[in-house]
Automatic annotation (TrEMBL):
<dbReference type="InterPro" id="IPR052634">
    <property type="entry name" value="Sperm_flagellar-bone_growth"/>
</dbReference>
<protein>
    <submittedName>
        <fullName>Sperm flagellar 2</fullName>
    </submittedName>
</protein>
<dbReference type="InterPro" id="IPR027417">
    <property type="entry name" value="P-loop_NTPase"/>
</dbReference>
<dbReference type="Pfam" id="PF22946">
    <property type="entry name" value="SPEF2_D5"/>
</dbReference>
<dbReference type="InterPro" id="IPR056199">
    <property type="entry name" value="SPEF2_C"/>
</dbReference>
<dbReference type="GO" id="GO:0097225">
    <property type="term" value="C:sperm midpiece"/>
</dbReference>
<dbReference type="Pfam" id="PF06294">
    <property type="entry name" value="CH_2"/>
</dbReference>
<dbReference type="GO" id="GO:0007288">
    <property type="term" value="P:sperm axoneme assembly"/>
</dbReference>
<feature type="region of interest" description="Disordered">
    <location>
        <begin position="615"/>
        <end position="653"/>
    </location>
</feature>
<dbReference type="Pfam" id="PF24082">
    <property type="entry name" value="SPEF2_C"/>
</dbReference>
<feature type="compositionally biased region" description="Low complexity">
    <location>
        <begin position="636"/>
        <end position="649"/>
    </location>
</feature>
<dbReference type="InterPro" id="IPR001715">
    <property type="entry name" value="CH_dom"/>
</dbReference>
<dbReference type="InterPro" id="IPR054517">
    <property type="entry name" value="SPEF2_D5"/>
</dbReference>
<dbReference type="InterPro" id="IPR010441">
    <property type="entry name" value="CH_2"/>
</dbReference>
<dbReference type="InterPro" id="IPR036872">
    <property type="entry name" value="CH_dom_sf"/>
</dbReference>
<feature type="domain" description="Calponin-homology (CH)">
    <location>
        <begin position="1"/>
        <end position="105"/>
    </location>
</feature>
<keyword id="KW-0175">Coiled coil</keyword>
Amino acid sequence: MSDIICQWLNVELRLSKVTEPYSFTRDFANGYLIGEILHRYELQDDFHLFSKQSTANAKLNNFTRIEPTLQLLGVPFDLAMAKAVMQGRQGAATHLLYQLYIQLQKKKKSGLTATAMEVMQPAATARLHRARRKQHEIMIQIQSAIVQIPKPPHARTSRASEKQLQFRKKQEVEPISTVDKEQWNKEYIESIRQRLEEDSAAREQREMRRRRALMEQLQAHEAQQELLREEQMVSRLMRQTQQEKRITVQLMQIKQQKEVLRQNRIFQERQYQERRLRDFQEALDREAVLAQQERLERSEEIRMERELHKQLVAERAQARYRKHFEICRGILEQIVDLATKAGEYRLLTANLIPVKLMQEWMELFFNGKPLYEVASVDPAPADPTPEQIIELEKLQILNNQDYNEYVAMKGEWVWHEEGESQAPPVNDILDHVLSRLQSLIVPLSVSTPRPLFPRFTIRACMLGKSYSGKTTCLAKISNGRNQAETKTHSNSATDKNSPKDPPPPSPALDLVVLLDISDEQVLERAAHQAGELPLYCYNVDTHDPASSSDEKSLGRKQIQHRISGFHDTWPKLEKWFGDQQNILVKVTADVDEDTLSSNVKIVLMDTMDSVEKGAALGDSRKMSTSSSAEHTRPESACSAKSKSATPKSAGRRYVEEPLPKEIPVYLVPYWENVCNSYVTNVKTVMQNLRSERKLIIHHLYNIRENFRQYLQKTDLKQEFVSVWQGDYNSVPDNIREDEETKGELHQRLDDLRERLWDICDKRKEEAEQERAGVIDDGWLDDHTAVLINHYSALMQIEVGRFQDSLCLLRDYYTAMCKTAFPESTPALCVDTNECVVLGAPTPQQEPSPQPVVEKNPEEVKRKAERKRIKQEFTAALKREEHAVKLRLELIKAHALRTVSSLQQKAEQAYRNMEEWLGTRFLSEMNSIDQLTELVRQHIENGVQIHHELVLQSADFCVDGDTLVVASPSPAPRRSPLEQSRNSTLTVQQLHILCAQLRKTAPAGQNHNELTEVLHELTSPHMGSDVLPEPWMHITPSQFDELVCVLAPDSEMLDWRQFLLSAALPWPFPSQTQLLKTLQRYRAVDTAGTGLITQEQYAQIELWFPSERDLPVPDDPTEPLPYDRLANLKKFFFSLFASTHSSPLMLDYLSMLLYFCCHPEPAQGFTRALSLVIGHTLSICEIFVSSRCSLEIFHLVVEYSDNLCFCRSVDGVKGLFGAAFNVLLCVQELLKVFKELGFKGEEKIPFSTLSQHPFLQDLMEASSQYLLPVSVTNKYVISHNRAQW
């Protein structure tokens, strides 16, 4: 049903707005489109008064105007229906449209106009309609005349009266001055004016209400008068004759019967209508269910499509990654192969790699071929494997490279005579002959006529993915550019005076437009085209539902393949159109249809303007086509002619007499065979030369390495030396000092030396024989002959090609001249340099001129033409002779350089062998002399030779790892000693200072005593090792300042705290580490005495490791590294242990309270309090009472050696030094508790208690747990600065 209504509204009526089933509720809510439908059927004359707005007034106006028309059509429409449509209830608009569609179709079939329908209605219904219409018009006029003025609120008037009354009372009480009176008068007048305006507005409102009531009374009166007039008319008719009365009665009966029939018909139609409505509602419900099911299926299908797209994108990315990875790996492997190949040949050629060899490697590298041999192709396989195919391709690449260099006379074949390079010779006559023969065999292709397709101003194409909007944009643009074809006809005129040679072809396209869109947008548009969402279908051009459905289904199924195909093809297109032709323009297609069309149109118009003005959009880049020489023309391949200008273009005229047909047919295949044979033979020779060069390099390297290995061959010298050393060490020590024994030992040493010399002389003779055998093996002469044979074969190839050229030219010119030229063979001789020298045949001498006799002009012309032919033939022969001589000279020079290089390399290898031999002999003799000198020293000293004497090859050494006599044990290491660093005291100095202070005052000292002790330790008679060097320069006044800093509020000073500060740096413990250390101590202290022994102290780890793995020096005489932390741990025990007990005992809680010191006094006090409590102090968890707080303070004080003056809970006096010299008792704490709002026994959070000013001053002024960090360093540094 909804599709039928949509087709009726959009296709048949073509409303101003395209509607869809899902938008009926929104589109018809204001009633404008309903009025437009009635206006299309000529039933709504006041359609121009309708409003498109969606306000309440606009909706009321529109539905008020369409109500009479709907009633006229018989469409059920009341206030409830209007309210449902305006509020957008589901199905209300659809139901109304369906009723309207049925009634309008009936009207269309009956062909009745609005006036006829109005006349056919019953009188009462018509009168009611007219009355309503007239009433509506009157109401509109009244509403247009009414001015809405708001009525002043009652509250405002009452407030004004109250203010006025208050002002009067105030005026009566207080006298009013003149200025105030004037101000009061103004305000009073203003209030009167405002009240008058409000009264006027209220009066107008009352007048409007009165008018509205009068209008209602007038309408009721008019309706009553209308009914009265009808009754009067009926009564007037009833006063007629009896016959008329009878007729009237009959008519009334008939009318009643008709009314009954009409009512029955109406009732039946109402039943039919209800039935249709039920059927329509059921159909709508079924459509809704099917649409919902289809929507869910489509959503699932879209989800699967997107997942498939993501999978394809991932696979494509993975494939691209693999491709790039393989490319990079291949390039990297080739680079590694190139590096290893270069390193290998540097070893083979003694760091002198030939340039030609490096060029060959680079050519293989650029072609992506492996440098190392992957398979053997000798002999050539009939059915090659893939590896052999690669080797054959490598051979072809190298052969082409060598052939091209040889033909172009480049690289190693460049001409170096007289210091100038010479280009390859050119024989333009031979080129002309070959081109003419070729043209006679294959005639020139006739230029194809121009196509009948008209010429356009621009040629462009549009690219993009599926559903990117290509067809839609082109369709819109083509509708407005139909005149482009006629416009281009004016530019299609050709110039009759243009040259015959056509200009180079222009690029095929002037512009390429890419509609850029994401893959997700493509999938979304494909889903929209399938019918899920009513968006624009960008690629649908047909209006046939069946074909459109098939195309949608096919495009939806192939969308993934289309996207993948675009991604696979686009890089090549982008490289061609963008980088090479520079005609690519990208347009964003992720916009609406109109914007996309306008953007594409702008690009096309700009391109059209630039083309019309003669400016190209992008320069066409010519693609350079490269082809190997063997694939070019046969004549250029064999004669090595450069691509110069043709003979005609050079301005020279050649003889072109007619030839017999069989001459070109014979000569062209003949010349092709000659060229193919020439190319194949030259490449074969080049391949043989490369193989010979490789063989020479490896052979020279092998003979050098074999000779070097031969020189390194072991001999029997070491066995003789070992036996002699054993005999020497077996001599008793008591007779070594005897002169006769020394003489005997010297004589034995001389005998050993003579025997070693004999071995060296014999090895030298054998090495010289080996070198002479390498020189006389005949390898150099054999391979020199092989090289000469290869170059001779290359010369023979050039001579054979020269003979074939002579035969071709002779046959060609003989066929034109109709007389045979003499067949004389060129002179061939070989000089002493084994170079072939050729002499071209000399044409026969023409006879002496005869007396002039008048002859026939035709005969004269024929003789002149024959003379030109002979001259051209002679010139061609001379050029070929020059070319072959140049080639032979080039081959000769190259052969001489190659043979000379081979001989030089061989001689260099032989000289190297001779030098190695002499160097080896001298080294062996030198090593024997060194051994003799060392042994003579031991003989003269009368000692044994403890280490083994090694005489290996040409080297002599003493093996320190091998002992032939037992060696004494090594000396023990020295004890580790700590080095002093700047002003930091060593552990030993700390022990000395601790012993001195404990001896002076075991419990504590005052300022003067500590100053005297420090001053005494810095005196010169105590030595310089007692304190560090910077401490020795501190003055007594600076000592006083230092002591005052350590104890500013007390005369007594804790020297343990002073030493703890002086021992810095040491690892500063955290609160958690201190608690863990306390737990470990308590675990060892099973008796709970609070004391541990030194053994127990050593077993427990502090918060820092006492044993570390320090590096052991390689030198056994050096001491081990000093472990400061381990020795500091021992010092801490001696510092805090009690000396009054035996064995020494340590109060570990007292020691840990010292380590609670902190640079901030409050933090130190909190750390100490946390340690005494036994767990980490958390402000949110600690609750203390007044008595508990006193006990905690006493526990903290109890473990302080010199600061506790009170042990009872009744009061604390002088707590924590001079800053606590106040009365701290229960009353003070109770007072603090009362100030905070707590009773004496109640628990209070420590966070609240610590915020009290009394407690804060108490903690901040405490110096008991204040750690003066680097106090001593401060004064030492200041003293040093003063010295500087």
